[in-house]
Design a protein that fits this description.
The protein contains 14 helices and 18 strands. By secondary structure, the protein is of the alpha/beta class. The chain folds into three domains: about 200 residues, FAD/NAD(P)-binding domain (3-Layer(bba) Sandwich); about 80 residues, 2-Layer Sandwich (D-Amino Acid Oxidase, Chain A, domain 2); about 45 residues, no CATH class. The relative contact order is 0.16. GO terms for molecular function: FAD binding.
């Protein structure tokens, strides 16, 4: 019998499995995929996530892949230019954006090094439970068709936005909003060494420098345009870059993209119940929001650490485990709800005059610009950024 079974071995699942194993628990991690394998992702790890990678002792391996430190960001909208970097978290000011087949592999290797048993090509077909409805394990099918049953005190679902595990344990959706955007991206050679954001009414373009001197360039459109955009996705993508970020477009106009165009209109926004009797959800399985703010990886890391902290040493005590899972569910929502609503605001792709007024007040003041990027990174809350002093300065600049 295992202490913990983790279903899903990407950044949320591998981190969770690694941390439980380091806490002295016997852990099984399963994933239906064979690694290494890429996945749809904006790649970006904000400063709080970088600080956790350092705390876990794996940041040096991420840096060793060659992904550059992203310690300068630029945001352009209308006639406004905001340039700076988030304030540090535990001494770390740079963000990083490794390719997912590298990041996920590093975390899975770290989990195995911590003592996790990792089964690839293993699909969970059922969650086992006792007469009282408590999850007690999983039924799996291996790549050769064999079926096995494994038992554990805690089963964790980390199998992504379309989580089958969440369905199996009947985790209810507690908060949900309709998709706001659709997004397309591909990779280009060189282009920039900065994290750049460009916004115009109904459009959002971002650059994310990553491994091998390549840059992910993403374009966001309103969800209402998805059916039109998908009919000529590359044409719509290039036109969005050209019209929203003409200087950026000039750098790629003569290039051929390094990969096919990736895209999705499935930008769900929700919270599911985070935990129940003998089970918990981490990462996108339990909470997902529009990728426009690139918070998914960082939030997955935070949830992994939070779950292990809340369970603590109580996993083998049924009452303490239940208390720990209830605390995890409460804290997860408390920690992530503000970023959820701010992401929905960004994903509306509306250029409101009051926001332009605020940004004009911020522009040119380095401390305010850095605090603005710290808000985007989740280092400080929106209420910490919008101080009475900022409101007063904004009033003074009104025409």
């Amino acid at each position: 019998m295992y202490d913990v079974i983790v279903v899903g071995a990407r950044c949320a699942g591998a981190s969770t499995a690694m941390l439980f194993a380091r806490a002295g628990y016997r852990v099984l991690m399963v994933d239906r995929a064979e690694f290494p394998r890429d996945t749809l992702s904006t790649l970006y790890i904000h400063q709080p996530g970088v600080a956790l990678l350092r705390r876990w002792g794996v940041l040096d391996k991420v840096i060793a892949t060659g992904c550059p430190p992203l310690d300068r960001a630029v945001y352009r909208i209308a006639d406004i230019r905001i340039e700076g970097c988030s304030i540090p978290v535990d001494g770390h000011r740079a963000a990083y954006a490794p390719r997912r087949y590298l990041l996920d592999g590093i975390l899975a290797d770290a989990a195995v090094a911590a003592g996790v048993e990792f089964r690839q090509g293993c699909t969970v077909t059922d969650v086992l439970s006792d007469d009282e409805g408590q999850a007690t394990g999983v039924r799996c099918r291996t790549s050769d068709g064999a079926t096995t049953e494994e038992h554990a005190r805690l089963v964790v679902g980390a199998d992504g936005m379309r989580s089958r595990f969440a369905t199996m344990v009947d985790s209810r959706i507690t908060t949900e909003d309709p998709p706001a955007t659709c997004a397309y991206y591909t990779y280009w050679e060189g282009v920039t060494d900065r994290f750049e954001l460009y916004e115009a009414p109904g459009r959002w373009v971002g650059t994310v420098p990553t491994n091998d001197n390549t840059t992910l360039i993403a374009a966001y459109f309103p969800q209402s345009e998805f059916e039109r955009v998908r009919k000529d996705a590359m044409g719509a993508y290039l036109e969005a870059v050209r019209s929203t970020a003409p200087e950026l477009y000039a750098k790629i106009a003569s290039q051929t993209p390094l990969e096919r165009l990736h895209g999705t209109g499935d930008q769900r926004n929700y919270f599911r119940e985070a935990a129940g009797l003998g089970w918990a959800l981490v990462g996108d399985a339990g909470h997902h929001k529009d990728s426009i703010t690139a918070r998914g990886i960082t939030d997955a890391f935070r949830q992994a650490q939070l779950l292990v902290d809340c369970v603590g040493t109580g996993l083998r005590d049924p009452e303490k485990l239940l208390d720990g899972l209830e605390e995890y569910a409460y804290q997860r929502d408390e920690i992530l709800i503000d970023a959820y609503h701010s992401t929905l605001s960004v994903a509306a792709l509306e250029v409101a005059e009051h926001r332009l007024s605020m940004l004009r007040t911020v522009a040119g003041d380095q401390e305010l610009m850095d605090r603005y990027f710290a808000t985007l990174a989740g280092v400080i809350g929106v209420e910490e950024f919008f101080t009475p002093e900022l409101h007063a300065r904004q009033e003074l600049t009104r025409p």
